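[09:14] KT: can someone run the structure on this one? pasting the chain below
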Amino acid sequence: MLGSDDALVRLLARRRTRVEQFGVTLVPIALGIVGIIRHSDNAPVVLVAAVLVALGFVAAAAFSGFEIRDRAQEVIAAGYERLPLRVVRDERLRLSSHRERERFARSLERLLKDAQNWNRILPATRPPQGVRELRFAEHEVHEVVSLLRSEPVHVPGVARTARFLCDGATSPLFGGDDEALRAELRRIRDLLDREHSQAELDERLAA
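[09:31] RB: done, structure tokens below
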């Protein structure tokens, strides 16, 4: 559906490989335990080495899980929230929950408050510098927060909110450009608004 070169497909394949590699390490771990029971001199070394390797694969698989979630959010934000993939479905359900939407809404409110009270915050505890530009986007922030708390909500907008808050590499929230930041918040607002999003889709299909 996405193609073998898609980032999500590659990430899923990488995680599957790490899980399979972890499974392989269970054999030397079991042998090491048996060796210790039988008082083999080399058993402790084998067991420790196998456990360390297994922990490395577990950590790699866990990190892949975070990357998969990020990519699933990007897929959903692009309008493909109905793809019949378990990772996309699970992320869509998580993002649509009231708990997650409230968490994003509170994060935006907190960041806006920080931006408006920047000089009262100790430099060591301030958020990244680009967040200060939110002081020019108070209206847009309140619109997005209101829609996040409304029912029903359009999940692609929630996914785009998540990327806005968490993607430090590319998010306009951290770029220091107030025009780009306001434009992204307006885009999120439009995506969260199901009626507006449907009208936009209808226009694209008609064209």
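[09:33] KT: thanks! The chain has a mean pLDDT of 85.
[09:34] RB: yep, looked fine to me
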